């Protein structure tokens, strides 16, 4: 299972764009990259998933370079409610049997 | 998206007693579910993989006789913390995924406090 490395914490202000980068040097050919958000005392919530290039949904964008050894989660115009821990995970296709190993995560603190 | 529900959301029990936590996939069947434990200000730690109709697979360092897992149906897995002690106080989270879906869905978590 590929290991991920991301910054322990980041600070931002409301209205700014936040980019959180994750390193996964040993990512396997079949691995997808998935980002989750976790608020205190809640289970993680899916944000976005990608395999290569760029993926965008209503809450975030995910940028993956050609070598796939890293990825960047981009949150546009963050608000106070985006303060949370963000986890980057990699794993095989077929999530039913894919156990997800969580790294340290990045604590994003958004200030007014 | 799919919904995974845990019950109870929080529980307080006396030291030495056992506590059962339920994890249900509400709108899909899950042959595999996962149990995690999270201590304050730490990441989620995988405890075990729950397999429907067979024995659970435990991660290294997790006592299988203390954390009993039963996955009797395709929509329900239970985690029983036996003879709980204060050091077992933690946030327990389950997850499940549909076959062929790369996205995992997590329950809301259960806060266990052993006094």
Produce the secondary structure layout.
The complex is a heterodimer of chains A (112) and B (115).
Chain A: E1 9-13, E2 18-23, E3 31-38, E4 45-50, E5 53-56, E6 61-64, E7 70-75, E8 84-92, E9 106-111
Parallel strand pairs in A: 1-9
Antiparallel strand pairs in A: 2-7, 3-4, 3-8, 5-6, 6-7, 8-9
Chain B: E1 4-7, E2 10-13, E3 19-25, E4 32-38, E5 45-51, E6 57-58, E7 67-73, E8 76-81, E9 90-96, E10 105-106, E11 110-114
Parallel strand pairs in B: 2-11
Antiparallel strand pairs in B: 1-3, 3-8, 4-5, 4-9, 5-6, 7-8, 9-10, 9-11
Largest sheet of chain A: 5 strands, mixed
Our count of helices of chain A gives 0
Radius of gyration of chain B: 13 Å
> Helix- and strand-based class of chain B?
mainly beta
Terminal-residue CA separation of chain A = 38 Å
Task: Give the mean pLDDT of chain A.
Answer: 91
Q: What is the helix fraction of residues of chain B, given as a range?
A: under 10%
Residue fraction in strands of chain A:
over 45%
Order of helices and strands of chain B: EEEEEEEEEEE
Number of DSSP strands of chain B? 11
Largest sheet composition of chain B: 7 strands, mixed
3D architecture notes:
The complex is a heterodimer of chains A (112) and B (115). Chain A is mainly β and 112 residues long. In chain A, 0% of the residues lie in helices and 48% in strands. Chain A has no helices and 9 strands. Chain A has strands at residues 9-13, 18-23, 31-38, 45-50, 53-56, 61-64, 70-75, 84-92, 106-111. Chain A has a 5-stranded mixed β-sheet, with no helix packed on it. In chain A, β6 (61-64) and β7 (70-75) form a beta hairpin. Chain B has 115 residues and is mainly beta. In chain B, strands 2, 4, 5, 6, 9, 10 and 11 form a 7-stranded mixed β-sheet that branches. A 4-stranded antiparallel β-sheet of chain B has the order 1-3-8-7, with no helix packed on it. The model of chain B has no long low-confidence stretch (mean pLDDT 92). The interface between A and B is medium-sized, with 25 and 30 residues.
């Amino acid at each position: 299972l590929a290991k991920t490395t991301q910054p322990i914490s980041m600070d931002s202000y409301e209205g700014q764009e936040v980019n959180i980068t994750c390193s996964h040097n040993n990512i396997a050919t079949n691995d997808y990259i998935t980002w989750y958000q976790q608020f205190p005392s809640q289970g993680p919530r899916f944000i976005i998933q990608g395999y290569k290039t760029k993926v965008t949904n209503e809450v975030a964008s995910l940028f993956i370079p050609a070598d796939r050894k890293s990825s960047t989660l981009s949150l546009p115009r963050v608000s106070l409610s985006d303060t949370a821990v963000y986890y980057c995970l990699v794993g095989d296709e077929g999530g039913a049997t894919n156990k997800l190993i969580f790294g340290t995560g990045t604590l994003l603190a958004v200030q007014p | 998206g799919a919904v995974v529900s845990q019950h109870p959301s929080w529980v307080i029990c006396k030291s030495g007693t056992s506590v059962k936590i339920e994890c249900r996939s509400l709108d899909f069947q899950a042959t595999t579910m996962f149990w995690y434990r999270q201590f304050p200000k730490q990441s989620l730690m995988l405890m075990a993989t729950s397999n429907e109709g067979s024995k659970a697979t435990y991660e290294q360092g997790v006592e299988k006789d203390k954390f009993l897992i039963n996955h009797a149906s395709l929509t329900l897995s239970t985690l029983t913390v036996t003879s709980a002690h204060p050091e077992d106080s933690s946030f327990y989270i389950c997850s499940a995924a549909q076959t062929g879906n790369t996205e995992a869905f997590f329950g809301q978590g259960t806060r266990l406090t052993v006094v």
